[in-house]
Write a structure and sequence with these properties.
The chain has about 170 residues and is an alpha+beta fold. The chain has a single domain (about 20-170), classed as Nucleoside Triphosphate Pyrophosphohydrolase (Alpha-Beta Complex). Helices cover about 20% and strands about 40% of the residues. The protein is built from 3 helices and 9 strands. Strands 3, 4, 5, 6, 7, 8 and 9 form a 7-stranded mixed β-sheet that branches. It has a two-stranded antiparallel sheet with strand order 1-2. Strand 1 and strand 2 form a beta hairpin. It is globular, with a radius of gyration of 17 Å.
């Protein structure tokens, strides 16, 4: 049976995203590709809070019984239509947003993964899923140096680290 709280009805086994009782585990995908000699990163424009209307890395909340890698694959497919293979964790961080009264409005523990497109997705034709308004392959230089897409400082740091990991990975596979 569902229960009620001061923030509205809630079904048994589910957790509110807004004003949660505990942190919510989530994942993000740093999907990189080369196009016309330039590095690109896959970005999604959020439809819902937190960050409604803003650009971010694809990702979302984990589901019960799924691993972080499985969640990364599912969320990227749901949001972008692309199949990816998570290579390695780039960073784990807390995303905590407080309301005007100082209460925790959102709290996610997020694991961002460096991901490669699966072989059958080599062209990388992304399409927006139901919970994002738009997806785009963005030039990394424009994202990081020019500030296009107004990503958070944390997202930019994750992209930089993923680029470093990608270079190391490429050097290691001859």
């Amino acid at each position: 049976m569902g229960s009620s709280s001061r923030h509205g009805p809630q079904s048994e086994g589910s957790q509110r995203r807004e004003y949660p009782e505990r942190p919510i585990a989530g994942v993000g995908s740093v999907v990189l590709r080369r196009a016309e000699g330039r590095s690109q990163v896959l970005l999604a424009r959020r439809k819902t809070e937190p960050m409604a209307g803003g650009w971010s890395l694809p990702g979302g909340a984990m589901e019960l019984g799924e691993t972080a890698r499985e969640a990364c694959i599912r969320e990227t497919l749901e949001e972008t239509g692309l199949r990816v293979e998570p290579i390695d964790a780039v960073e784990t961080f807390d995303m905590i947003q407080r309301d005007a009264e100082g209460r925790v409005q959102y709290h996610y523990l997020v694991v961002d993964f460096l991901c490669h497109l699966r072989g059958d997705e080599s062209e990388g034709e992304a399409r927006a899923g139901s919970d994002v308004g738009e997806v785009v392959w963005a030039d990394v230089q424009e994202v990081l140096e020019d500030g296009d897409f107004a990503l958070t400082a944390r997202a930019c740091t994750v992209i930089r680290r993923a680029l470093e990991m990608e270079m190391e990975w490429d050097e290691g596979r001859v």
